[in-house]
Design brief:
The chain has one domain (34-325). The protein is globular. The chain has helices spanning 8-23, 31-62, 75-79, 82-101, 104-113, 126-147, 150-163, 168-171, 173-196, 205-221, 230-236, 241-245, 247-268, 277-292, 296-314, 316-325. It is 75% helix and 0% strand. It holds the Pfam family UbiA. It is found in: Membrane.
Length: 326
């Protein structure tokens, strides 16, 4: 693979990136500024990772013997762990986002696609983001050592390094989606372990089969998030599916797997027809919108529906558990 030729947008943005880094190299940050900055760093991933993966963990723990070694899950106890699951998911997202957003190519992309993020907005320099990353890695390690999911956190540290510093996100859309798929599996597994209680219960064989399916869903459909970001991805030379295969081919590569995986998940859990309504409806909306609505704003909205769709799939083991009890 040959190196991408520098484009006009990249050339015009490089002085901006360097100037911002120099300007904010030593600038002190107030407490409120720090809180707002941290919020903005992770804001975009709240809808796609933090809230959906928290839902996965809680629903999986509540499903008891369907996915875990807990034969009689206590809903009150498990629901009481929601803050811990949110914390676990969010701190892992923070590490990934800091590692990603500090890189020069990411700053170029964000200046076009997400100019509100702290570094292109001038609220934070790349050097300050690097220091935040250095300081937070051991903090996150000890948090997860205490509340659970430490193994998944360590695995995600490695995946974050591969995705960002080793350029896995820019290598090809196959590598990019594969690393993301492994990341989602780690988020799902870790969130479930925290929701079950640190060291109290374990995932069973069916849970690992379910995680493989989740990985397959992400691997084959995550390019839905790339549809609205084509301008910025092109400016940084990222080889996403719509840029490599073309917009139309990428759209069909989303719509068909969304329908396929919806059916697979519903058949895997052997659910009654009523359980098909929500995931089938949301999957149909994602597939339809992907093919029909093709501008940036509509693609952003379709990405929201993708997140609602995959979250609806996370509910299926819980529906299965309570269906068996009735």
């Amino acid at each position: 693979m040959t190196a991408a030729e520098p484009c006009k947008e990249e050339s015009s943005l490089l002085p901006f990136v360097k100037a911002e880094a120099e300007e904010h190299e030593t600038a002190p940050l107030s407490v409120l500024h720090k809180l707002r900055t941290i919020w903005l760093i992770t804001r975009n991933d709240l809808k796609s990772i933090v809230f959906p993966e928290t839902s996965f963990g809680i629903c999986s723990a509540l499903s008891g013997p369907i996915l875990t070694s807990n034969q009689s899950p206590d809903p009150i106890t498990i629901l009481g762990r929601i803050p811990m699951v949110l914390l676990w998911t969010w701190v892992n997202v923070l590490i990934f986002d800091l590692a990603n957003q500090r890189l020069p190519n990411s700053i170029i992309e964000d200046a076009i696609n997400k100019s509100w993020r702290p570094i292109p907005a001038g609220m934070l320099s790349a050097a300050q983001a690097r220091r935040l990353l250095l300081g937070n890695i051991p903090v996150v390690f000890f948090i997860t050592f205490y509340i659970g999911g430490m193994e998944e956190t360590v695995a995600m540290f490695v995946l974050t390094w591969m995705y960002n510093d080793l350029g896995g996100a820019d290598e090809s859309y196959v590598v990019r989606n594969f690393i993301n798929a492994l990341g989602f599996v780690c988020y799902s597994s870790g969130a479930t372990r925290v929701a079950c209680g640190h060291g109290q219960y374990f995932l069973n064989d069916e849970a690992y089969q379910w995680l493989v399916i989740i990985g397959g869903i992400v691997f084959t459909t995550l390019q839905a998030q790339d549809m609205a970001d084509q301008e910025g991805d092109g400016a940084r030379g990222r080889r996403t599916m719509p840029l490599v295969l073309g917009d139309l081919a990428a759209r069909w590569s989303i719509a068909v797997p969304v329908v396929f995986w919806t059916i697979v998940c519903l058949l895997f859990w052997e659910l009654d027809v009523y359980a098909w309504i929500l995931p089938a409806s949301l999957g149909g909306i994602v597939a339809f919108r992907t093919l029909v609505f093709r501008d940036v704003d509509e693609d952003k909205l379709t990405w929201y529906f993708w997140n609602f769709w995959i979250t609806s799939l996370y509910l299926l083991p819980l529906i299965k558990y309570y269906g068996l009890r009735c």
